[in-house]
Write a structure and sequence with these properties.
With 203 residues, the protein is an all-beta fold. It contains no helices and 15 strands. The radius of gyration is 27 Å and the shape is elongated.
Length: 203
């Protein structure tokens, strides 16, 4: 409708239509994420560096529609280690570093690998394992745990290479996403055994 103010008149040939637009249905591919059994639960030593703590499989093999650019990945720790006791996080595929986070965990016990400037590409019909490692602060004298995982589907930002659409990942072999949590790593102290050398200090 047109509302006028004043004494002018408006004439037109109705109805007035815009240009015809063609609708095209586009299917976005699928991306499934599953935590891996390796690395398994183990004891890590306080002060150790570059310790692999969790691996996740990113899978596009069920769909042939498109590959995906992974732009961001948020990792959450649900263990008891303090946020300031882990640092220098590295995200790798095999021996290739694809993301880094130099500081400690944020206040909500998360670390976000921002790969927007150089997204990691997973081609269609491919499966890749992305692994997280970090340094452990020295001087931890009480037993603490590290449990890294992907808590929610929105913590993975990935877009299709052809549709450009952002995917909502699945988990657990193409099921509705639920938290994918790695093994429990226990942080402890190393041991030192001292024994008398009877060859040089006989009874």
């Amino acid at each position: 409708a047109v509302e006028l103010e004043g004494t002018g008149t408006v004439s037109a040939s109705y109805p007035i239509n815009g240009n015809a637009m063609q609708y095209h249905a586009v299917g976005v591919g699928g991306l499934d994420i599953d935590v891996q059994s390796s690395p398994g639960a183990t004891t890590l030593i306080s002060g150790a560096t570059a310790q692999e703590m969790a691996c996740f499989n990113f899978d596009t093999t069920t769909t042939t529609v498109e590959g995906f650019y992974v732009k961001s990945l948020k990792i959450t720790n649900t263990g008891t280690i303090a946020n300031g006791e882990l640092s220098n996080f590295i995200l790798k595929e095999g021996s290739t570093t694809i993301g880094t986070y130099a500081g400690n965990m944020d206040g909500d016990s998360t670390v976000t690998f921002d790969m927007t400037a150089s997204p990691y590409f997973i081609d269609k019909n491919k499966s890749k394992n992305l692994c997280v490692s970090a340094d452990i602060k020295g001087g931890i004298t009480t037993s603490k745990t590290i449990i890294l995982g992907i808590a929610e589907s929105k913590h993975v930002v990935a877009s299709g290479d052809t549709t450009k659409g952002q995917v909502v990942p699945t988990a657990g072999n193409w099921a509705l996403f639920a938290a994918e949590t790695g093994s429990t790593m226990t942080v402890g102290q190393g041991t030192l055994t001292v024994a008398r050398n009877t060859a040089t200090l006989p009874d």
